[in-house]
Amino acid sequence: MNSKLDRQSPIALYAQLAAVLRSDMENGRLGAGERIESETALAQRFQVSRVTVRLALQDLADNGLLVRKQGKGTYVSRPAVQFDLQKTPGFFDILFEQGHNPRTRLLSFGPRDPILEVSRVLRLGAGEQPILLERLYLVDEKPIALGRGWLRAEASRVSWADADNHSTAWILEELLGTAVAHSEIAIRATTAGRVISRMLALPARSPILVGIRTSFDQQGRPVEFGQFFLNPDAYEFTFGSDHPIPIASTIRAVAAE
């Protein structure tokens, strides 16, 4: 591993250092999730100031290649799972399509008394008991998301094996004969409670993302209500537009509410 920088080059030392570290990541000398050396160690090895090291690390972090964990150090980022908000595949399908060495673990599947929000969104009648499908999503054996999907009572005829091996969309369409016409997705930030922190192997009250999805059939009937608790280090949400997106005016409008 070359630890020399060209001090005669017009390229700033921090940029050269960032390029060396980037090359180490691309060549596998620094693997995903691996902790890199401390600022002091890097400064000594490359014979530069800690300010130069800090600038290099910040440049890599700004480009999503490093993640800094307070009190733990700096780590090589793991590839983010990309979720296109303009498409409808679920978290289950996205993991396997993108080849992130994924695995899912079915935690529970069966009838449950609904929380108030589930009853409201699924428009449940008095005494109607939905089916809860709770699943943990892992990449390289690291938990990245916890999904809780609520389905209507007809899902009770689905076997544990089918719930374990297939996505919610597949269950709805192939086993229950319900075609999903469209879905509505909302994303918000919150802090993880005790249970979610434990399931995602995060420190208590860590910031997380919560994705909320409601799926409707062709008659406009809500057929699924899903909550997805996401490690923000592992997910990247994308969308495109053929027109300018009025972000500033939208923020002003929301702030004024």
Largest sheet: 6 strands, antiparallel
**Main CATH class of the largest domain:** Alpha Beta
**What is the CATH superfamily label of the largest domain?**
Chorismate lyase-like
Topology as a string of helices (H) and strands (E): HHHEEEHEHEEHHEHEEEH
Neighbour order of strands in the largest sheet: 4-5-6-9-8-7
- The coarse silhouette is elongated
Individual helix count: 9
Which fold name corresponds to the CATH topology of the largest domain? Chorismate lyase
Question: What is the terminal separation in angstroms?
Answer: 55 Å
Number of strands: 10
| CATH architectural type of the largest domain | 3-Layer(aba) Sandwich
Overall pLDDT confidence:
82
Proportion in helices: 25-40%
Beta-strand residue percentage = 25-35%
Q: Uncertain runs with pLDDT below 50, 5 residues or more?
A: none
Cα gyration radius (Å):
23 Å
SS-based class: alpha+beta
Instruction: Give the number of domains.
Output: 2
List the helices and strands and how they pair.
Layout: H1 13-26, H2 39-46, H3 50-62, E1 66-69, E2 73-76, E3 81-84, H4 91-97, E4 102-111, H5 116-122, E5 131-139, E6 142-151, H6 160-165, H7 168-175, E7 180-191, H8 194-199, E8 207-217, E9 222-230, E10 235-238, H9 247-256
Parallel strand pairs: 3-10
Antiparallel strand pairs: 1-2, 4-5, 5-6, 6-9, 7-8, 8-9
Helix pairs in contact: 1-3, 2-3
